[in-house]
Amino acid sequence: MQFLVSSDELIKNLQALRNVINNNNTIPVLDNFLFELNNNSLKITASDLETTMTATVAVESNDTGKFLLPARMLVDTIKALPVQPLTFMFNDNNTMNIVSETGKYSFAYADAADYPNPVEMEEAAQISIPSGVLADAVSKTIFATSNDELRPTMTGVLFEFSPQGLNFVATDAHKLVKYERNDLKADAETQFIVPKKPLQILKNYIAGSNDEVQIAYDDRNVKFNFDNIQLLSRLINGQYPNYRAVIPTDNPNVLIADRQNLLNVVKRIAIFANKATHLIRLDITGAELKVSAEDLDFSNRAEERMTANYQGDDMSIGFNSKFLVEMLSNLDSDEVSLNMSGPSKAALIHPMDGLEEGEFVTMLVMPLMLS
């Protein structure tokens, strides 16, 4: 049994699949790729039981068969080779040879019988979303997910579909991001929580693509189909927090500032903030914004002033600088608005430009108490 494949096409898919495999698998068989050869089509699968990703690659072959190959060793080998055609040849003694233009590399391969069977999704609902929209939705929300395993529902992104539009929400109880698309609709109302890991893989793979992503989902799983890739993930079970209840609706104090300038100022001032709290202080008076921070333990202090458009009462408010940097870095607009009701209540950040029609982004950040 043998097949011929382009090393460039193969390694592109293997590197994406490699991200699914955990570094420390408790089930040794999951350290392998599953290869399924069917004449001129090669299907390669990687899984950690929670997430399963499959890529289909065109090859030249007249054979069929299933086998397992060690993922890390295979990726490292092919990645180190120059772009060229590679011939995979399988021998009766459970060894596989990769033959290149200048060398031969031998691997032990294993029987595919012990590899977990794929999940079958029956009667799944479906929706099609442009890959660029989905990539934006994931990239603008995933950083706000929680790492607290005691709150599993917050460790993923909420997908909320309805005939009115699509919402994508993430929160860790300190910050919250809601990405809305009113120009896209679903046939019925539904919501499910997708874990962070498959979304990170998905985001990296579809970024810059203009194709459609087909999403199929049921009560337990979600499947993304795009290009030659199928990514299946088990959903996070549980009730997502009522995020709408924490988004303030009355925010009369509005600061509008240049996003990049504000981001740069916050980054510089954050260097001098207390390393435990990352607290920076915003003092807003008229058209002037003063950003400052100090670390009393080391007698460090810094402040900068910048002009801004402000409507509201003079105010002093504190934020975690790491949260502000994350939020401002994940927006593409030239200007942002910071909407506040008071120094002890949540503030909202909105992009003022750079959005498509029907696209809305709301970022919420909780304040820190000033001493």
Layout of strands and helices, then pairs:
Blueprint: E1 2-6, H1 7-18, E2 32-38, E3 41-47, E4 51-58, E5 64-70, H2 71-79, E6 85-90, E7 95-99, E8 104-108, E9 125-130, H3 131-139, E10 156-162, E11 165-171, E12 175-181, E13 190-195, H4 196-206, E14 212-217, E15 221-226, E16 229-234, E17 253-258, H5 259-270, E18 279-285, E19 288-295, E20 300-307, E21 309-311, E22 315-320, H6 321-329, E23 335-340, E24 347-351, E25 359-365
Antiparallel strand pairs: 1-6, 2-3, 2-5, 3-4, 4-16, 6-7, 7-8, 9-14, 10-11, 10-13, 11-12, 12-25, 14-15, 15-16, 17-21, 17-23, 18-19, 18-22, 19-20, 23-24, 24-25
Describe the structure.
With 371 residues, this protein is an alpha+beta fold. The protein folds into three domains: 113 residues, DNA Polymerase III, subunit A, domain 2 (DNA Polymerase III, Chain A, domain 2, Roll); 117 residues, DNA Polymerase III, subunit A, domain 2 (DNA Polymerase III, Chain A, domain 2), CATH 3.10.150; 119 residues, DNA Polymerase III, Chain A, domain 2, CATH 3.10.150.10. The chain is built from six helices and 25 strands. The strands form four sheets. A nine-stranded antiparallel β-sheet has the order 13-10-11-12-25-24-23-17-21. A hairpin with a 7-residue loop joins strand 24 and strand 25. The longest helix is centred in the N-terminal third of the chain and has 12 residues. The protein is elongated.
